[in-house]
Structures are given as structure tokens and as C-alpha cells.
Amino acid sequence: MEQNNGAGDSCAGALDRSKLIVNYIPQFATEEDLAVIFAPLGNIENIKIMRDFKTGYSYGFGFVKYFNEEDAAKAINLLNGFSFRNKRLKVSYSRPPGTDMKDSNLYITNLPKDVTEQDVENLFKHYGEIVQRTVLKDKHTGLPRGVAFVRFSKGEEAQAAIAHLDGKMLDNAVLPLSVRVAEDHGRQKAQYLEAWNPLGGGIGARGTLHKSGFALASMDWFNGWTMALENIYTK
């Protein structure tokens, strides 16, 4: 079985019923973790979790390709809704490549302060397939800050959500909802990471920060990255 962390497939064509998309993958899950779950149902050709190519940050979704369509169908029947760590996996057929995901990630502000990720999903799910949703929380209190990201499977789905929800007044909200395409913040993340990390250095193969042989655990690095991301979008 081949395991690959690269970018998405580029070939186009009809629906491949041996290839599955898996949503709501826990942040620190690996391809090996998914193999433990999916391999008992059939021979797997490829497993790939989609990640930021610079930081290694998981986007929370990936692909599992079986050799046989029957095994893929079995995986959908048995593993859709499967509880994995703190998530429930969503397993379905992967749509043919060529469906553009550009501008599919939305940045939402002015949400009620008691909003949950399930509330966000319930609000946005009518406009398309949600690949990932995240509610940003205060780093001190752990409470929602009224800010969230929602990534759809297609840019047109995100545009539909913007058309219907931007400016909508929600119950318990102080200001109208603001929904827009998230800016390309890769450069901002890098700048904040550089400012946050007093040791300098780069990101190693296992997601740790290195400086003169010193390494910070990947969990510590991710917590710092999360705080940096919150600072970017809540100031």
C-alpha cells in the first residue's frame, strides 16, 4: 500500500467508485492511523491526508483509494460516522478531480459568543458539502470568540453560502454575520510563527521547531500556531 502526503490528484474523469473522501479527520491523525481503520475492509492502493505544504497543518480531510469498488462501498456503509478520537468521520465517494476548491474556505465573524462547531455546521450545511469547520476560541478562557472557518468542497458552494448568509442577523448576535472568502494567509502565518517562536528555526519532518538541536514537541508547536492564527483574525 502506498502512502502519500502530496497535493491532490490532477487527473479528470468520471466518478471513481474505488476512491473515497474522508472528512473530519482529527488534526494529528496520520495515514497510518487511517490504514488501521480502512485496511481491514479491503486492499488499499493509496491513502493521503491533505496538508499545508509549508507547515504540515492538516486540513482535516483526505482520500482513501481501494483497489476494488466493492471494498470502497463497504467502507462507506461501515465507516461513515465512525467515531475516531474526538471526531466522527464522514466517508463518501470522492468527486472527480477538476471540481475547483479555489475560494472554498470561508472566514466568518460576528457569530454569537456561545456558538459551537455543530451550530456552524447546521447553519452552513444547506449550501454544500462541508469539508472542515473550526470555531476559534479564546486562548485563556477556551470560550468561542465569534469567529469561525468553514471549508466547502467547491468554491461555488462557498459563494452560495456568502450570498445567503452574509449580513444575516442571528439570534443572540450583536452584529450581522460577516461571511467572506478567507484571505490567502500563508505569508501571515509564516510571519506570526517567526514572531511567536523566539528560537527561530524551521519546521522539521515531524512538525517540530528546531534550533541548535533543541526541539519543541509538535503539540506545543500547534498550540502556538493556533494562537497566532487567532491573533491574525481577531484583532
TrEMBL record:
<dbReference type="GO" id="GO:0005634">
    <property type="term" value="C:nucleus"/>
</dbReference>
<dbReference type="InterPro" id="IPR002343">
    <property type="entry name" value="Hud_Sxl_RNA"/>
</dbReference>
<dbReference type="GO" id="GO:0010629">
    <property type="term" value="P:negative regulation of gene expression"/>
</dbReference>
<dbReference type="InterPro" id="IPR050502">
    <property type="entry name" value="Euk_RNA-bind_prot"/>
</dbReference>
<dbReference type="GO" id="GO:1990904">
    <property type="term" value="C:ribonucleoprotein complex"/>
</dbReference>
<dbReference type="GO" id="GO:0003729">
    <property type="term" value="F:mRNA binding"/>
</dbReference>
<dbReference type="Pfam" id="PF00076">
    <property type="entry name" value="RRM_1"/>
</dbReference>
<feature type="domain" description="RRM">
    <location>
        <begin position="104"/>
        <end position="184"/>
    </location>
</feature>
<protein>
    <recommendedName>
        <fullName>RRM domain-containing protein</fullName>
    </recommendedName>
</protein>
<dbReference type="GO" id="GO:0050686">
    <property type="term" value="P:negative regulation of mRNA processing"/>
</dbReference>
<keyword id="KW-0694">RNA-binding</keyword>
<feature type="domain" description="RRM">
    <location>
        <begin position="18"/>
        <end position="96"/>
    </location>
</feature>
<keyword id="KW-0539">Nucleus</keyword>
<keyword id="KW-0677">Repeat</keyword>
<dbReference type="InterPro" id="IPR035979">
    <property type="entry name" value="RBD_domain_sf"/>
</dbReference>
<dbReference type="GO" id="GO:0005737">
    <property type="term" value="C:cytoplasm"/>
</dbReference>
<dbReference type="GO" id="GO:0008266">
    <property type="term" value="F:poly(U) RNA binding"/>
</dbReference>
<dbReference type="GO" id="GO:0009967">
    <property type="term" value="P:positive regulation of signal transduction"/>
</dbReference>
<dbReference type="InterPro" id="IPR003954">
    <property type="entry name" value="RRM_euk-type"/>
</dbReference>
<dbReference type="InterPro" id="IPR012677">
    <property type="entry name" value="Nucleotide-bd_a/b_plait_sf"/>
</dbReference>
<dbReference type="InterPro" id="IPR000504">
    <property type="entry name" value="RRM_dom"/>
</dbReference>
